[in-house]
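User: Hi! I'm working on a homework problem where we have to compare a predicted structure to a textbook description. Could you give me the structure for the chain below?
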Amino acid sequence: MTSKQNWQIGISTDTGPIKKRNEDSYYMKLIEDLEGHELMLVAIADGMGGYKAGDMASRIVISMLDQWWEKSIRKLLKKKDCLQRIIKDMNRIFVRANERLVQMDRKVGTTLSVLFLYKGRYAICHVGDSRIYQIKGGQIGFQNFFRAKELEKGLDFLHEQHTEALEMDVEMVQLTEDHSWVEQQIKRGNLTIEEARKHRKRNVLTQCLGIENGVQPSVQMGFYQSSDLFLLCSDGFYSMFSNEEITETILGLEKENRNLQTLSEYLVKLAKYSGTRDNITVILLRNIMKEDLQAKEREKGKLLSLFKKKR
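Assistant: Happy to help. Predicted structure tokens:
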């Protein structure tokens, strides 16, 4: 068992103003390898509202993910190519989950987007139109993390000695591709992103789990820094706002020193009162890696020495 002290986390979900049942499910697990590096798994599944028992479908795939984690993750963590092996397993899990849902008596469907974070690298396996974003260049929440640590230790005077982080260009990147009809139209040049966001067919999927035989999950791998923020969300949230609106809202709230839990709750309420017609789930996640913690401790030690000398 390991702690979440190196992580900033916010999770919020709501049935929304229209539906009577929340068909969204989510999952989060954290484990430490033999060298003390932490592996985080976070996933979101959005049961298909157009089919009966969408909530059952999302719960089933999350349950299968949990069973895989408990059975396999410790063995995989001992391998050098850990993330590559995990993604291979994820492909098999997605195929099995699809087969299980297809074989059910009633027609059920769900999206599934899974994110792994480990030693500055991310890996994603994804089907459907739930989304995973990476917000790069935002320093506010990163700085707030260390400020909170200092206040806990009674070292708030050092904060005034810190050099403020240089303002960087903030970029929000959508890491997952929507498996939807409108996304196909965007690629063909028939719709703009804004037109697709409001199109009456925006909920028509070209691929999900449980509706047709055969599934081809999308896989994405890349790198992240401690200042990067990951956002996982169902379409009940992102369909209400442009990427620019989401980014500006998150950055604005972090400047007010809001923690990610408070921020996630605010974003869900914002989508709810903006008129979304679907369930809403928002997950925010940032990993302050140990290397950055150690660097910050060294910086703090130097500042403390300097402060004592001046006295």
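For your comparison, note the following. Residues 238 and 246 are 8 Å apart (CA to CA). The first helix runs from residue 54 to 77. Good luck with the assignment!
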